[in-house]
Amino acid sequence: MTTQNATATIDPREAAHFGEMAADWWNPAGSSAMLHKLNPVRLRYIRAAIDRHWPGNAHGFRPLAGRRALDVGCGAGLLAEPLARLGAAVTGLDAAPENIAVAAAHAVGQQLSIDYRATPVEDLADSGFDLVTSMEVIEHVADPAAFVRALAGKLAPDGLMILSTPNRTPLSRLAMITIGESVGGIPKGTHDWRKFLTPDELTVLLDQAGLEVTDSSGLSFDPRSGFTLSANSAINYLLTARHKAR
């Protein structure tokens, strides 16, 4: 396992929890089934954000061609692989070496070249990434403020950051823990509701790190159509941020 420095934001207990799920990560009916259902909605949001930020290739298949992307908390590559298919040179970081091993093997099978590392974002020497993503991760780290600062430090001056995380509301507790971790397929113990951040709290952390929020969307569940982007952020939400104008 990669040695962590004193400022690393990784929570070893969280890393171990998700590492135990590594072998099953790509099974759409397995322990990561919820992530498989979330991923298409995330990708729609990310693609729209890319097209707004870098206009001119809205109808192309590779809008990230020539750009570098960093996915922090990449798991076994559910988001990193689509980003690579969109043309990016992708680096994926995860706290669990087990996840990185599965991610690397899966990428080879898909004939994708992705730089996967079991490295805390604080220890990554590279910076200047055009796109930085971290999906459903900040609620699992030891120090959210330090984590956001570390993400901001990897972002290029004209870069785009996209985060998603559960909101801290009574409805999110019901949906993601009471129901999700009992009959919803989410492994028990995955979430600590007290560590969820509200959109206002996350916006403050981004502001303190020198970033401004340029877009946000709720992520809701509809029994008829599954997960959808919506104005309701009571369960989960996504934020787009960039460096503040100087």
TrEMBL record:
What are the EC numbers?
A: 2.1.1.222, 2.1.1.64
Any one Gene Ontology BP term: methylation
Q: State the InterPro entries in the record.
A: Fumarate_lyase_CS (IPR020557), SAM-dependent_MTases_sf (IPR029063), UbiG_MeTrfase (IPR010233)
Question: What keywords are assigned to this protein?
Answer: Methyltransferase, S-adenosyl-L-methionine, Transferase, Ubiquinone biosynthesis
Pathway the protein contributes to = Cofactor biosynthesis; ubiquinone biosynthesis
Q: What class of enzyme is it?
A: transferase
**Which PROSITE patterns has this protein been placed in?**
FUMARATE_LYASES
- Family according to the record: Belongs to the methyltransferase superfamily. UbiG/COQ3 family.
Q: What is the originating organism of this protein?
A: Sphingobium cyanobacteriorum
Catalysed conversion reaction: a 3-demethylubiquinol + S-adenosyl-L-methionine = a ubiquinol + S-adenosyl-L-homocysteine + H(+); a 3-(all-trans-polyprenyl)benzene-1,2-diol + S-adenosyl-L-methionine = a 2-methoxy-6-(all-trans-polyprenyl)phenol + S-adenosyl-L-homocysteine + H(+)
Q: What is this protein called?
A: Ubiquinone biosynthesis O-methyltransferase
Q: Name one Pfam family in it.
A: Methyltransf_23
Q: Recall the GO molecular function terms of this protein's record.
A: 2-polyprenyl-6-hydroxyphenol methylase activity; 3-demethylubiquinol 3-O-methyltransferase activity
Function of the molecule: O-methyltransferase that catalyzes the 2 O-methylation steps in the ubiquinone biosynthetic pathway.
Q: Where does S-adenosyl-L-methionine bind?
A: R42, G73, D94, M135
Annotated PANTHER family: METHYLTRANSFERASE, UBIQUINONE BIOSYNTHESIS O-METHYLTRANSFERASE, MITOCHONDRIAL
